[in-house]
Amino acid sequence: MIEHLWRFPVEPDSVLKTRFAPSPTGRMHLGNARTALFSALLAYRQGGHFVLRIEDTDAARSTVLHAEGVLEDLRWLGLPWQEGPFYQSRRQDLYAEHFEALRAQGRLYPCFCTPEALAEQRRSQLAAGRPPRYDGRCARLPAAEVDRRMAENQPAALRFRVPEGQTVVFEDLIRGPQCFESKDIGDFVVRRTDGTPAFFFSNAVDDADMGITHVLVLAAQH
Fold it and tell me: Greatest CA separation found in the chain?
Protein backbone atom coordinates (compact mmCIF):
# COMPACT_ATOMS: atom_id res chain seq x y z
CA MET A 1 0.00 0.00 0.00
CA ILE A 2 2.61 2.54 1.07
CA GLU A 3 4.53 2.36 -2.21
CA HIS A 4 1.39 3.43 -4.10
CA LEU A 5 0.71 6.51 -1.98
CA TRP A 6 3.20 8.80 -3.65
CA ARG A 7 2.04 7.94 -7.18
CA PHE A 8 -1.62 8.94 -6.81
CA PRO A 9 -2.43 11.45 -9.58
CA VAL A 10 -3.90 14.87 -8.88
CA GLU A 11 -5.79 16.97 -11.40
CA PRO A 12 -3.97 20.17 -12.43
CA ASP A 13 -5.00 23.26 -10.43
CA SER A 14 -6.82 21.14 -7.85
CA VAL A 15 -6.12 20.39 -4.21
CA LEU A 16 -5.84 16.75 -3.20
CA LYS A 17 -8.15 16.02 -0.29
CA THR A 18 -8.36 12.90 1.80
CA ARG A 19 -10.61 12.32 4.77
CA PHE A 20 -10.84 10.36 7.97
CA ALA A 21 -14.49 9.81 8.83
CA PRO A 22 -14.97 7.61 11.91
CA SER A 23 -18.25 6.89 13.67
CA PRO A 24 -17.99 7.85 17.36
CA THR A 25 -19.55 4.65 18.66
CA GLY A 26 -16.43 3.49 20.49
CA ARG A 27 -12.77 4.25 21.01
CA MET A 28 -10.38 4.35 18.07
CA HIS A 29 -8.74 1.02 17.30
CA LEU A 30 -5.65 0.05 15.31
CA GLY A 31 -7.57 -0.17 12.02
CA ASN A 32 -8.91 3.37 12.51
CA ALA A 33 -5.43 4.65 13.26
CA ARG A 34 -4.01 2.99 10.15
CA THR A 35 -6.69 4.53 7.92
CA ALA A 36 -6.08 7.96 9.46
CA LEU A 37 -2.31 7.58 9.09
CA PHE A 38 -2.30 6.69 5.40
CA SER A 39 -4.96 9.28 4.55
CA ALA A 40 -3.00 11.98 6.36
CA LEU A 41 0.34 10.95 4.84
CA LEU A 42 -1.06 11.12 1.32
CA ALA A 43 -2.46 14.61 1.90
CA TYR A 44 0.73 15.86 3.57
CA ARG A 45 2.96 14.40 0.83
CA GLN A 46 0.94 15.99 -1.98
CA GLY A 47 0.50 19.36 -0.27
CA GLY A 48 -3.20 18.69 0.09
CA HIS A 49 -5.77 18.76 2.88
CA PHE A 50 -6.53 16.07 5.43
CA VAL A 51 -10.22 16.44 6.36
CA LEU A 52 -11.72 15.20 9.62
CA ARG A 53 -15.41 14.27 9.59
CA ILE A 54 -17.32 12.74 12.48
CA GLU A 55 -20.06 10.45 11.13
CA ASP A 56 -22.41 10.60 14.11
CA THR A 57 -25.76 9.94 12.43
CA ASP A 58 -26.29 6.81 14.56
CA ALA A 59 -27.81 8.74 17.45
CA ALA A 60 -28.42 5.62 19.52
CA ARG A 61 -24.75 4.62 19.63
CA SER A 62 -22.75 7.81 19.02
CA THR A 63 -21.49 9.76 22.03
CA VAL A 64 -19.82 13.11 22.54
CA LEU A 65 -17.19 11.37 24.67
CA HIS A 66 -16.13 9.11 21.81
CA ALA A 67 -16.16 12.01 19.33
CA GLU A 68 -13.84 13.98 21.60
CA GLY A 69 -11.72 10.86 21.95
CA VAL A 70 -11.14 10.79 18.18
CA LEU A 71 -9.76 14.33 18.26
CA GLU A 72 -7.55 13.54 21.24
CA ASP A 73 -6.19 10.36 19.64
CA LEU A 74 -5.35 12.11 16.36
CA ARG A 75 -3.50 14.82 18.25
CA TRP A 76 -1.61 12.15 20.21
CA LEU A 77 -0.70 10.41 16.93
CA GLY A 78 0.60 13.71 15.53
CA LEU A 79 -1.92 13.81 12.66
CA PRO A 80 -3.28 17.37 12.41
CA TRP A 81 -6.24 17.98 10.11
CA GLN A 82 -6.55 20.99 7.81
CA GLU A 83 -10.36 21.03 7.61
CA GLY A 84 -12.99 20.13 10.18
CA PRO A 85 -14.01 18.54 12.35
CA PHE A 86 -17.35 18.34 10.56
CA TYR A 87 -20.23 16.59 12.34
CA GLN A 88 -22.84 14.85 10.20
CA SER A 89 -25.49 15.34 12.88
CA ARG A 90 -25.23 19.08 12.16
CA ARG A 91 -25.64 18.68 8.39
CA GLN A 92 -29.17 17.27 8.23
CA ASP A 93 -30.49 20.23 6.21
CA LEU A 94 -27.98 19.46 3.46
CA TYR A 95 -29.06 15.82 3.29
CA ALA A 96 -32.72 16.88 3.20
CA GLU A 97 -32.00 19.09 0.18
CA HIS A 98 -30.48 16.14 -1.67
CA PHE A 99 -33.38 13.87 -0.74
CA GLU A 100 -35.81 16.39 -2.21
CA ALA A 101 -33.73 16.88 -5.35
CA LEU A 102 -33.56 13.14 -6.00
CA ARG A 103 -37.25 12.71 -5.25
CA ALA A 104 -38.13 15.49 -7.71
CA GLN A 105 -36.12 13.62 -10.35
CA GLY A 106 -38.08 10.44 -9.70
CA ARG A 107 -35.02 8.62 -8.38
CA LEU A 108 -36.47 7.79 -4.94
CA TYR A 109 -39.55 5.92 -3.81
CA PRO A 110 -41.01 4.99 -0.41
CA CYS A 111 -40.53 1.42 0.77
CA PHE A 112 -43.05 0.08 3.28
CA CYS A 113 -41.48 -3.37 3.67
CA THR A 114 -41.09 -4.45 7.28
CA PRO A 115 -37.85 -5.98 8.59
CA GLU A 116 -39.68 -9.32 8.71
CA ALA A 117 -40.72 -9.06 5.05
CA LEU A 118 -37.18 -8.14 4.01
CA ALA A 119 -35.76 -11.06 5.99
CA GLU A 120 -38.19 -13.42 4.24
CA GLN A 121 -37.15 -12.06 0.83
CA ARG A 122 -33.53 -12.71 1.73
CA ARG A 123 -34.21 -16.27 2.90
CA SER A 124 -36.17 -17.08 -0.26
CA GLN A 125 -33.46 -15.73 -2.53
CA LEU A 126 -30.69 -17.59 -0.73
CA ALA A 127 -32.72 -20.81 -0.77
CA ALA A 128 -33.10 -20.42 -4.54
CA GLY A 129 -29.36 -19.91 -4.95
CA ARG A 130 -29.70 -16.24 -5.86
CA PRO A 131 -27.72 -13.38 -4.31
CA PRO A 132 -29.92 -11.44 -1.86
CA ARG A 133 -31.08 -8.03 -3.01
CA TYR A 134 -34.28 -6.03 -2.73
CA ASP A 135 -36.88 -7.30 -5.22
CA GLY A 136 -38.36 -3.86 -5.94
CA ARG A 137 -41.91 -4.66 -4.89
CA CYS A 138 -42.60 -1.19 -3.47
CA ALA A 139 -41.31 0.41 -6.67
CA ARG A 140 -44.24 -1.23 -8.46
CA LEU A 141 -46.97 0.00 -6.11
CA PRO A 142 -49.67 2.12 -7.81
CA ALA A 143 -49.53 5.81 -6.94
CA ALA A 144 -52.93 5.61 -5.24
CA GLU A 145 -51.69 2.82 -2.96
CA VAL A 146 -48.58 4.81 -2.06
CA ASP A 147 -50.72 7.86 -1.25
CA ARG A 148 -53.03 5.75 0.93
CA ARG A 149 -50.17 4.28 2.94
CA MET A 150 -48.51 7.65 3.36
CA ALA A 151 -51.81 9.16 4.53
CA GLU A 152 -52.02 6.38 7.13
CA ASN A 153 -48.49 7.28 8.29
CA GLN A 154 -47.18 3.80 7.61
CA PRO A 155 -43.43 3.66 8.33
CA ALA A 156 -41.52 4.08 5.09
CA ALA A 157 -37.87 4.17 4.16
CA LEU A 158 -36.69 5.84 0.96
CA ARG A 159 -34.96 3.71 -1.67
CA PHE A 160 -32.84 4.80 -4.61
CA ARG A 161 -34.17 3.55 -7.93
CA VAL A 162 -31.10 1.94 -9.53
CA PRO A 163 -31.19 2.42 -13.34
CA GLU A 164 -31.71 -0.79 -15.26
CA GLY A 165 -29.35 -2.19 -17.87
CA GLN A 166 -26.36 -0.02 -17.03
CA THR A 167 -22.72 -0.82 -16.38
CA VAL A 168 -20.91 1.05 -13.61
CA VAL A 169 -17.23 1.53 -14.43
CA PHE A 170 -14.56 3.34 -12.43
CA GLU A 171 -10.82 3.27 -11.90
CA ASP A 172 -9.48 2.09 -8.55
CA LEU A 173 -5.98 3.50 -8.23
CA ILE A 174 -4.81 0.36 -6.41
CA ARG A 175 -6.85 -2.44 -7.99
CA GLY A 176 -7.27 -0.97 -11.45
CA PRO A 177 -10.48 -0.86 -13.52
CA GLN A 178 -13.66 -1.94 -11.71
CA CYS A 179 -16.93 -2.90 -13.37
CA PHE A 180 -20.40 -3.68 -11.97
CA GLU A 181 -23.76 -4.35 -13.59
CA SER A 182 -26.65 -2.31 -12.20
CA LYS A 183 -28.87 -5.41 -12.13
CA ASP A 184 -26.57 -6.87 -9.48
CA ILE A 185 -26.97 -3.91 -7.10
CA GLY A 186 -30.68 -3.66 -6.31
CA ASP A 187 -32.56 -0.59 -5.09
CA PHE A 188 -30.99 0.44 -1.79
CA VAL A 189 -32.17 2.44 1.21
CA VAL A 190 -30.93 6.03 1.41
CA ARG A 191 -33.19 7.19 4.25
CA ARG A 192 -34.29 5.04 7.15
CA THR A 193 -37.85 4.85 8.45
CA ASP A 194 -36.90 7.19 11.32
CA GLY A 195 -35.96 9.89 8.80
CA THR A 196 -32.19 9.66 9.26
CA PRO A 197 -29.93 9.24 6.22
CA ALA A 198 -28.30 5.89 5.57
CA PHE A 199 -24.57 5.90 6.24
CA PHE A 200 -23.44 5.64 2.63
CA PHE A 201 -25.84 8.38 1.48
CA SER A 202 -24.54 11.03 3.88
CA ASN A 203 -21.03 9.74 3.23
CA ALA A 204 -21.34 10.31 -0.53
CA VAL A 205 -23.05 13.70 -0.15
CA ASP A 206 -20.33 14.91 2.20
CA ASP A 207 -17.47 13.64 0.04
CA ALA A 208 -18.89 15.56 -2.92
CA ASP A 209 -19.71 18.69 -0.90
CA MET A 210 -16.26 18.78 0.73
CA GLY A 211 -14.39 18.11 -2.50
CA ILE A 212 -12.78 14.86 -1.36
CA THR A 213 -10.57 13.64 -4.21
CA HIS A 214 -9.08 10.42 -2.80
CA VAL A 215 -10.63 7.86 -0.45
CA LEU A 216 -8.40 5.20 1.04
CA VAL A 217 -10.06 1.91 1.96
CA LEU A 218 -7.49 -0.27 3.65
CA ALA A 219 -8.29 -3.93 3.08
CA ALA A 220 -5.98 -6.80 3.97
CA GLN A 221 -5.03 -7.46 0.35
CA HIS A 222 -3.84 -3.88 -0.06
Answer: 58
